[in-house]
Amino acid sequence: GGVTLLLCIFLWAGFNVYFYKRNVVTGVMSDIELVSDTILLALHYAMMLDSEEDIKENINNIARQEEIRTIRVYNKQGEIVFSNDPDEVGKVIEMQSPECWTCHQYSPTPPAMPLNKRTRMLEGADGGQLMAIMTPIDNSEGCSPGPCHVHGEDEQILGLLDVTVSMTEKNAMIRMFQQANMGISLLVFAATFLAL
Fold first, then answer.
1. SS3 of 189, please?
2. Within 13 Å and on the Cβ side, how many CA atoms surround 29?
3. In this predicted structure, what is the pLDDT of residue 13?
4. Please, are residues 130 and 9 in contact by the beta-carbon 8 Å criterion?
């Protein structure tokens, strides 16, 4: 009886931790998507004005948020054209890199991908876990006909926005929840076992 009880309690705790972690990760994905959409709205106006300085200023200001590590804008050739890290600007990433391959493994490249397919987990330089989401920059009304823009009306995607955030704080929450759950599980087992 005691082994079955212990197994049931630990299964319950394991499911609790699993679903809590899944909810935290899904919440972070939604938060990054919301930030990405906000960045795109801020950049759209600056792009319509063809103001590189406004684009840089918007990216740098938004990247000051504590958990945001990088904000990058790629053109269709994979070149980083804007970044909160000026040393990255001008670098070109390979088509087979995780950032690009998510969409470019398909021919033709799909105009849209679900959020979970555009999300990737990375390891930071400090060893901490990062989450990054790529968001396509769509060709919208006003992008192609302007005198200063070179985008054709037939181009669906003009580039990509890549936002990377630290998972350090969220992972600490998950670990604390996991430890608390295991502690409560042991306490429930001990109390139940002693009561029998």
1. helix
2. 14
3. 87
4. no
Sequence-ordered list of residues with C-beta below 8 angstroms from that of 134, at least 6 positions apart, any chain: 99, 102, 103, 118, 160, 161, 162
Q: What is the pLDDT of residue 186?
A: 84
Mean pLDDT over each residue of the chain, to the nearest integer: 85
Cα–Cα distance measured from residue 43 to residue 52, given in angstroms and rounded to the nearest whole number: 10
Contact of 89 with 150, CB cutoff 8 Å: no
CA–CA distances in Å: residue 138 to residues 33, 46, 75, 125: 15, 15, 12, 31
Q: Which two tokens stand for residue 140?
A: 């919208």
pLDDT of 30 higher than 90: yes
pTM: 0.82
pLDDT of residue 141: 63
CB atoms within 10 A of CB 130: 19
Give me the pLDDT at residue 146, please.
56
Tell which residue, 33, 17, 20, 29, has the closest CA to residue 167. Answer: 29
Q: What is the residue type of 161?
A: L
Q: How many whole angstroms separate alpha carbon 3 and alpha carbon 6?
A: 5
Instruction: Please state, as a whole number, how many other Cβ atoms lie within 10 Å of the Cβ of residue 13.
Output: 20
* Tokens read off for 48: 């319509």
Residue 1 in this model has a pLDDT that exceeds 80: no
Best-predicted range by mean pLDDT (41-45, 89-93, 146-150): 89-93
CA dihedral 99, 102, 107, 110 (to 10 degrees): -100
